[in-house]
Amino acid sequence: DLVPLWEGAPIVWRMFLENGSTFEIENYHLNAKTHEEAFRAAGFSEIKWLPARVSPEGQDTFPKGFWDVLLEHPTVAFIECVK
Questions:
Q1: Which of 2, 30, 74, 76 is deepest in the core (most CB within 10 A)?
Q2: Chain-centre distance for alpha carbon 19
Q3: How far is residue 77's CA from residue 65's CA, in Å, rounded to a whole number?
Q4: Residues ≥6 apart with Cβ < 8 Å to 48
């Protein structure tokens, strides 16, 4: 189940490496409005939020359904802006 997020909620990504070691990256949840305000303040315009996609090679390499969770609940944002 997904945990509800609030503006500024910390998100910790824990990476597990093949050699058994780990490292963490701390990020913070910011909604689309906050991002767009920051982009405009930095002089960007024509802000477009792009959906996550899987390349044909990615679809062919992995079994059907492999990408479903990522596409339904993307962990990254794809944003296109013009300055």
A1: 30
A2: 26
A3: 21
A4: 79, 80, 81
Which amino acid type is present at position 59?
Answer: Q
pTM for this one?
Answer: 0.68
Residue 76, sorted as left (phi over 0), alpha (psi -120 to 50) or beta, turns out to be beta
24 and 14 in contact (C-beta within 8 Å)?
yes
Residues 6 or more apart in contact with residue 67 via CB below 8 angstroms: 54, 58, 59
State the Cα torsion 42-47-49-55 to the nearest 10°: -100
Amino acid found at 69: V
